[in-house]
Amino acid sequence: MKKVLHQMIIAAACLLLAGCAAVPQESEEKDAFSAVREEIRLEAVQKARPRILPVRSVFPRNEEGSILALWERRMPEPLHPRAWNGCENGQTVALNGDWHFAGESLIHSGAAVMYIGTAPRNGKIVCVNAGHGTAGSYSAYTYCHPDHTPKVTGGTTSAGSLTAVSVSSGTTMADGTPEAEVDLAVALALRDRLLSEGYDVLMIRESSDVQLDNVARTVIANNMADIHIAIHLDGDGLSYDKGCFFMSVPEGIKYLDNVAAVWESSERLGDCLVAGLSENGTPVYGSGRMAQDLTQTAYSSIPSVDIELGNTASDHGPESVNRWAAGLFAGVNRYFGFS
Ligand SMILES: [Zn+2]
Fold first, then answer.
1. How far is the CA of 238 from the centre of ligand 1 (A)?
2. CA-CA distances (angstroms) from residue 270 to 274, 275, 308?
3. How do residues 66-77 score in pLDDT, each as one tens digit?
4. How would you classify residue 308: left for phi > 0, otherwise alpha for psi between -120 and 50, otherwise beta?
């Protein structure tokens, strides 16, 4: 028993000594800690040091070695025909539930389609949205604004309304043709022009129907394109072609964060489109703009325009369709500074 007790005392003493030895002085601990921190800091600095790029990468030059002007610079062609956002040519783009405002959409079983422009591509993606063309849209009403405040101007839906039909049916041309059909013809012609000139194009609708409401169309454009152009004709009941104009942004929705960030660019895009149409022989209605509180405008976080090419009295034969497409194309070039 004595022997056991003796051993226990020795063991306890050893433990006490070992414990004392393991506890460093406070200053030593600080020094060790600082040294590790300094090592980590140096490693981070080393990693963050910029790589020296070859001059060619910083200033693109032509074959003679002169530095290219800004407007001469084209983004390099990738090895595979992919859009800059990773889409294949002809890939469908559905609404992603994680995208901002996606939860406000009620009709989104359809999909848009991404097309890759002909080389040399210019790195811009244009969303072309042929107005209307969503069967069953009158059974679903979406909020006019993402924050569920009431609409501030009257139109298809009156001012003060909290919700609006998810996609309206559109008007009917004087000869009985649905507006949606004319919108589509212009959209397809614009698509082909843009693609042949190096733009990538996100098409919202390419047939008489797409199951995407105005919120879904806008949210897809917000996340996949640089600009969003919705094509329409005005249903004003006039017997003469009054000309084109775009729907500018009303004061009452400029407080919305997403609208505050882009409304000036949207209006510049609208002005460019009207100028392009005018240059190509389309008359302009008044100042070329009319403030309207549209679902598209309220949910947009990229420059976005509803363009009214004319009204129900406008001629909409193949020549007019081409003239409108040429005008819109000129407007897009003007907006991006390519003309
Ligand atoms: Zn319309």
1. 15
2. 6, 9, 10
3. 665 555 544 444
4. beta
Please tell me the pTM assigned to this model. 0.76
Residue showing tokens 């005018």: 278
For ligand 1, the distance from its centroid to the CA atom of residue 292, given in whole angstroms, is 13
Distance 180 CA to ligand 1 centre (A): 7
**Edge-to-edge strand list for the sheet holding 304-311:** 91-93, 112-115, 200-203, 125-130, 227-234, 304-311, 244-248, 284-291
As a residue count, the chain comes to: 339
> Among all chains, which residue has been given the structure tokens 């100028």?
275
Neighbours of 7 (CB within 10 A): 10
Could you read off the pLDDT of 231-258 as tens digits, one per residue?
Answer: 999 999 999 999 999 999 999 999 999 9
CB of 233 closer than 8 Å to CB of 312: yes
Please give the distance, rounded to the nearest whole angstrom, from the Cα atom of residue 233 to the centre of ligand 1.
5
